[in-house]
Amino acid sequence: MAVTTTPVDDGAINGFGEELRGDLLRPADPNYDEARSIWNGMIDRSPAAIVRAMGVSDVIATVNFAREHEMRLAIRGGGHNIAGNAVCDDGLMLDLSAMRSVRVTPERKTARVEPGATLADFDHEAQAFGLATPLGINSTTGVAGLTLGGGFGWLTRKYGMTVDNLRSVDVVTADGELRRASEDENPDLFWGIRGGGGNFGVVTSFEFDLHEVGPAVLAGMVVYRGADAPNVLRHVRDFNADAPDESTVWVVLRKAPPLPFLPEDIHGEDVIVVVPFYAGDIAEGEAVLAPIREYGDPVADGVGPHRYAEFQRAFDPLLTDGARNYWKSHNFSTIPDEAIDTVVEYARNLPTAQSEIFFGQIGGAMGRVPTDATAFPHRDAEYGMNVHTRWEDPAMDDACIAWSREFFDAMATYATGGVYVNFISEREGEETLGYGENYDRLVDVKTTYDPENLFRMNQNVEPEPAA
After folding, report:
1. What is the DSSP string of 44-65?
2. What are the DSSP E strand ranges found in 221-363?
3. Cα 422 vs. chain centroid, distance in angstroms?
């Protein structure tokens, strides 16, 4: 498909806008700059027009208009995607952020979620009934983008990936048709949506399974000085090797932020933060997690009963929008001593005080799903690592990106060769690592539902060329 680099006729765009229930914004409109701004401050793109969709009819109209006028099309859900694929230059941006309904059916333990909803929206509604599904760890993340890439967080070891809890979707495909996809309807499309990113259409509704969680859970942070990092990492790794599915322990290496529960003399110093979470009875969790909390000489221990929805917001202050962000990702089946030594070396030389390296423990239930059951392929991963480089000054772009790439390369020898598709900042060949051995099947699904590659603002799977 030819993709225009200049806007189509203004009259055509204005006429299209008159057909919408939502708003159509052009560069001269007062809310245009706000609408094109997303979480990652590095992204500065200017669409020819922005559609603020109010419902499925607006989505269908936008997809049809973009296809008929051969315009580049970008889809914004929560706007949290690191690569900034929610915004394009010159083309058409479809903003779904106003479509954020969450409807819980407690007797069935299911939820219907629109694509503009955030994790906070979802958790707020589901926790009213003591229910939840595995999501991420930052409440401002969009449910749609998280889900389409796989989705993991505190509940993953107990209940699987986000996509493992997806029952069905409503999706507008490239031909402008609204389709339902599930295990029984359009199963090939449903397979691809569960980990294949936004390659196959615009999902207008997600149906999830829910589980009894909270409202209080045992969770929190145990903070150690940076000098203790080698021993703490080894201890957490060894503890996690035999931990039950209810137990999840993540590790973050960074400079200590000025949080109120941390001693002032540690602010700005190297720390290692151990974050345990127990998805079960709190008394049982106290016993299971005791070896984590009793280890070494921490400077702070904030572990205790927390309301689940509140803990999902615990890291929000460190991930506010507007900063410049660049990520790199690896998966690991284990973390050998040599890898730990490498991590500690780079953590001592983080390029900014906002940057961090984290290891999210996964495995458990997610690892017992066959690799080919969903498009998300990385069922052998016990840890997902994110090299999260974050800064404010554009003059630091080159240095911060170079540091991230160097660390990524240094860790590659210990990794599985897979990466998490939602953690990819730019197209450097990593998209094929993100889809792994399921890539060829994704090409087949892409060729069936989007043969002209209308949905290309993503970690793209290119369709087979026309014969």
Report:
1. ----SEEEE--SHHHHHHHHHH
2. 222-225, 247-255, 270-278, 300-301, 304-307, 324-332, 356-361
3. 5
| Inter-residue contact 234 to 292 (CB < 8 Å) | no
**Comparing C-alpha atoms, which of 346, 428, 348, 426 is closest to residue 387?**
346
Site of tokens 């005080």: 353
Give residue 391's identity as a one-letter amino acid code.
W
Residue 241: exposure state from Cβ atoms within 10 A (0-12, 13-18, ≥19): exposed
pTM: 0.94
The residue type of 248 is T
39-66: pLDDT as tens digits: 999 999 999 999 999 999 999 999 999 9
Both tokens of residue 438? Answer: 């399921």
- Maximum C-alpha span of the chain: 69
For residue 300, which of 266, 251, 253 has the smallest C-alpha distance?
266
Q: Can you point out the beta strands (E) in 90-213?
A: 92-95, 102-105, 110-113, 131-132, 166-172, 178-182, 202-209, 211-212
Model confidence over 129-144: pLDDT tens digits?
999 999 999 999 999 9
- Among candidate residues 396, 445, 404, 27, the one with its CA nearest the CA of residue 200: 445
